[in-house]
């Protein structure tokens, strides 16, 4: 039996092949989960996750797909193709909803902020991100598999394909992804404002990137502006980087805070044109020079806070990846 999830444009978001209640395969854009179980050193019984052409990406812990009661763990989530993790979790929420499963819990070693944000797009949650990530380091070090006592109630969103990306709808437009950049309410710098995808630095709107209709369809697209600030290419002085480390420690999950200063010591920071991102890690750690243009006139205190908010997600992701590499069995 074959089940397909197709949006109103005809775009296929998921295809599930079944043998009775046993999953043979789940296909989403960029990834295929095999229903067969193999032994994995971290997860035990696990489903392989592959690319469309059969290249192994990682593994996902075994679950009962027809009636899922647990949110599975992914052995190396960083190896997933962009966007496929969210698509998989939305299918999981839909399957749980259809099976009238009231709540699921996560029972894996990677309760990261990134996973929390992914899950809250497809589940209503009774709990906080702080509680979810509280034992991140311990769980990764011990490869803990006991359930975290936070209930995730299935509430899948509707996905709609648009040119260059997709829209997530749940009681209106919740999230827009265009060219790999996500726009959502309160986002920084990419923000969803009254059905517009915009870029904001500090309190100033930098650019409007897209306009959408209330039903999620794309009305208009605009090019990214080119930043020509005179600070581009200049490095941050060491004292500023040290001061930023103290602020960033307050913005990453508590288990990672003690690692921030050491990580920053080995990664110089420079001003750059980061396009639609506030910061990014490439050969060096880059910060969008538009932050300097928009925030520096308001004082160094506000500038430091803006820089810390820009850098914290990038550094958090890098620390999690390093910890995963150090604790994953060979």
Determine the number of helices (DSSP H or I, runs of at least 4 residues): 8
The outline comes out as globular
What is the average of the pLDDT values?
92
Low-confidence stretches: none
Q: What structural class do helix, strand and pairing data support?
A: alpha+beta
Keywords:
single chain; 330 residues; 3 domains; 7-stranded antiparallel sheet; 4-stranded antiparallel sheet; globular
How would you portray this structure in words?
This protein has three domains: 2-156, no CATH class; 159-221, no CATH class; 238-327, no CATH class. It is built from eight helices and 22 strands. The chain has helices at 84-98, 113-119, 129-133, 136-142, 238-248, 260-265, 289-295, 300-327, and strands at residues 2-6, 12-19, 22-28, 31-34, 38-40, 44-50, 56-61, 70-71, 105-106, 123-126, 151-154, 158-162, 165-169, 173-178, 181-183, 190-193, 196-201, 204-212, 218-221, 269-272, 279-281, 285-288. Strands 1, 2, 3, 4, 5, 6 and 7 form a seven-stranded antiparallel sheet that branches. Strands 12-13-14-15 form a four-stranded antiparallel sheet, with no helix packed on it. Strands 16-17-18-19 form a four-stranded antiparallel sheet. Strand 12 and strand 13 (165-169) form a beta hairpin. Helix 5 (238-248) crosses helix 8 (300-327). The longest helix has 28 residues, at 300-327.
């Amino acid at each position: 039996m074959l089940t397909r999830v197709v949006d109103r444009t005809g775009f296929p978001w998921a295809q599930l092949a079944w043998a009775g209640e046993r999953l043979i395969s789940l296909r989403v854009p960029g990834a295929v989960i095999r229903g067969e179980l193999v032994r994995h050193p971290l997860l035990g019984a696990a489903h392989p996750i592959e690319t469309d052409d059969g290249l192994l990406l990682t593994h996902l812990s075994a679950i009962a797909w027809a009636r899922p009661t647990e949110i599975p763990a992914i052995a190396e989530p960083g190896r997933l193709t962009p966007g496929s993790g969210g698509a998989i979790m939305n299918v999981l929420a839909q399957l749980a909803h259809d099976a009238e499963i009231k709540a699921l819990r996560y029972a894996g070693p990677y309760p990261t902020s990134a996973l929390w944000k992914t899950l809250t797009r497809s589940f209503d949650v009774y709990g906080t991100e702080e509680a979810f990530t509280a034992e991140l380091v311990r769980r990764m070090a011990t490869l803990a598999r006991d359930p975290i006592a936070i209930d995730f109630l299935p509430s899948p969103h509707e996905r709609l394909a648009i040119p260059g990306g997709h829209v997530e709808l749940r009681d209106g437009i919740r999230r827009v992804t265009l060219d790999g950049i996500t726009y959502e309410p309160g986002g920084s710098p990419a923000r969803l404002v009254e059905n517009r995808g915009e870029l904001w630095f500090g309190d100033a709107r930098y650019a409007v990137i897209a306009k959408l209709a209330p039903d999620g369809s794309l009305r208009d697209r605009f090019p990214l502006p080119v930043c020509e600030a005179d600070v581009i290419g200049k490095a941050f002085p060491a004292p500023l980087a040290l001061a930023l480390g103290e602020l960033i420690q307050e913005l990453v999950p508590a288990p990672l805070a003690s690692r921030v200063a050491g990580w920053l010591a080995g990664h110089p920071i420079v001003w750059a044109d980061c396009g639609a991102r506030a910061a990014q890690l490439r050969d060096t750690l880059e910060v969008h020079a538009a932050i300097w243009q928009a925030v520096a006139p308001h004082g160094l205190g506000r500038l430091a806070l803006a820089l810390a908010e820009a850098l914290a997600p990038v550094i958090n992701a890098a620390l999690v990846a390093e910890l995963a590499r150090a604790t994953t069995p060979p």
